[in-house]
Amino acid sequence: METLLNDFSPGLFAMQIVILIILLFLMKKFAWKPILNSLEERETGIEDALLAAENAKKEMQNLQADNERLIKEARAERDAMMKEARDIRDNMIAEAKEDAKEVTASLIEKAQASIAQEKQAALAELKKNVAELSIGIAESVIKKELSSKQDQLDLVEGILKDVTLN
Amino acid sequence: MYNLIGAGLIVIGGGIGLGQIGGKAMEGIARQPEAAGKIQTAMIIIGALLEGLAFGALILGK
Amino acid sequence: MKVAKKTIKFLAIAVIALITTTSFASISGNADQNHNVQNHDGGQVNTQKEVTDYIQHHLKDSHDFTFFSYTSEEGERKHFGFSLPVILWSSEGLVTFMSSEFHHNDDGHVIVEKNGLKFAKIHSKIYELNSDAATVSFDETHHATNAHKVLDFSITKSVVGILLASLLMFLGFSALAKQYKTREIPKGLGRALEPLVIYVRDEIARPNIGEKKYKKFMGFLLTVFFFIWILNLLGLTPLGFNVTGQIAVTLALALFTLVIYIFNGSKDFWAHTLWMPGVPYILRPILAIIELTGFILIKPFSLLVRLFANITAGHFVVMSLIALMVTMKEAFGPVASTGMSLVLALFIMVIEVLVAFLQAFIFTMLSSLFIGMAVEEHEHH
């Protein structure tokens, strides 16, 4: 301790204090303040940039989600439209089938009706023919009646045979 | 003469202390290598405090 | 344009340096051939005692800047270096002269007369002789009996070291500061200095003082850190500075820390120091005394002693190992002793480079720790 106190130089101490105060002042003014300020500026700049990047990323994600949603919606819409079209087609086919059925049915009906008419007409014709035939027969019978009774009978029988054969 | 004995005692004490600090710090680092930086800093600070104590005693006795 | 500006600046600095050196320099070759060569920085160093004296002399501040000295074949002592101004506050007021007037004498044999006062230099300290004395007389413990110390504001070697370190710091960091005006990321030396500034801020100040208040103390912490570091490193160069090994310098640094944390102490800090809550009333004054001595005496004392003792011990060990070359020459022969001292000194030098950083780091770290303790505000329980 004694040697230490002996070594202690008050002059050097005073010089050191004075120089250190001046140095502190100068360094603070010309070095530390601008350095620390610009470091801080740079750091906040970097932080801001990072934040901005993060935000942009989030926005991108949002956009992507939006896009996906839109695509999904479009797809759903398309599906719905397709379904509708299919339904319409099916309906149309079914209706067409129905119509066709109705038309054929009516045609068949008409045909049957006309067939029936024709038949009626044919029957009527036949009846007329039969009547004419019978009248003809009767006429010839009557023509032949005058000759003999037996002849008459033979004739009738012969004619009747012919008729039934017809 | 007595100064030297005192200095020897100080060095013994300081050595034991430093050994403890260093050893425990090593153990700590071995146990948790990821905390090595923090342990090192703390070790250096405590070592410095011990050093100050020992040097103080040495100088007072000189 | 820029290059031209730089060159001009460089020239200006060179001119200033030249002027100062030439005005200080008086390369004193044949100054003291008629004086006893057995003084502490003179003579050949051979024996153990001379080595110890030489180291002791180096560890002290000196009034002239000697790069090296040798004895010529005619037995004449030659010193290469320059003398520095001596500024004294004596009983008659300010006295100044150049240190060359002592002719490198360090044991009080050369007496300089100025303004009717007589001065002598004994072990790197300047004494003023009493008015009736013609030479310094010593008692048996080698204390001067008829002379007393004067206040010595000389530009000693240490002061030169302080000024040099300050200049280096100022030039380096103001250049870095200037770079930020034109570019985002500095280049050259600034690129190496910037991480150091960030290191001090993020590893030392922020965690210890706290996010809110660290900005106020950054100037002090950065200045002290680089000041100590540069001076520690300068001490390892062959220039032979031992500035941070001067107790006056470390005391000044520690006092700055003390003043800063005393004047920035928060209300909570003083409350906790002087009237510790949660402790029986009888113990509170005792605790207050303990805490106060801790903060005012012990903490700065440990700060100043740690730096001083580390650097002194480092210089002592390095110089002792270099001196092995001389002291072991007879025992091992010149080659072995030189090789041994080279290897050992190199090894210790590498450690000293680490210590140079570590001490600057620890000084700053503990300063910020103490400041952090003082400014901390507790939330009330």
Automatic annotation (TrEMBL), chain B:
The chain crosses the membrane at residues 43-61. InterPro entries: ATP_synth_csu_bac/chlpt, ATP_synth_F0_csu, ATP_synth_F0_csu_DDCD_BS, ATP_synth_F0_csu_sf, ATPase_proteolipid_c-like_dom, F/V-ATP_Csub_sf. GO terms for cellular component: proton-transporting ATP synthase complex; proton-transporting two-sector ATPase complex, proton-transporting domain. The keyword Transmembrane helix applies. It is a multi-pass membrane protein. GO terms for biological process: proton motive force-driven ATP synthesis. Pfam families: ATP-synt_C. Keywords: ATP synthesis, CF(0), Hydrogen ion transport, Hydrolase, Ion transport, Lipid-binding, Membrane, Transmembrane, Transmembrane helix, Transport. It is found in: Membrane. Its main location: membrane. The keyword Repeat does not apply. GO terms for molecular function: hydrolase activity; lipid binding; proton transmembrane transporter activity. Residues 5-60 form the V-ATPase proteolipid subunit C-like domain. F(1)F(0) ATP synthase produces ATP from ADP in the presence of a proton or sodium gradient. F-type ATPases consist of two structural domains, F(1) containing the extramembraneous catalytic core and F(0) containing the membrane proton channel, linked together by a central stalk and a peripheral stalk. During catalysis, ATP synthesis in the catalytic domain of F(1) is coupled via a rotary mechanism of the central stalk subunits to proton translocation. Belongs to the ATPase C chain family. This is ATP synthase F(0) sector subunit c. It comes from Algibacter lectus.
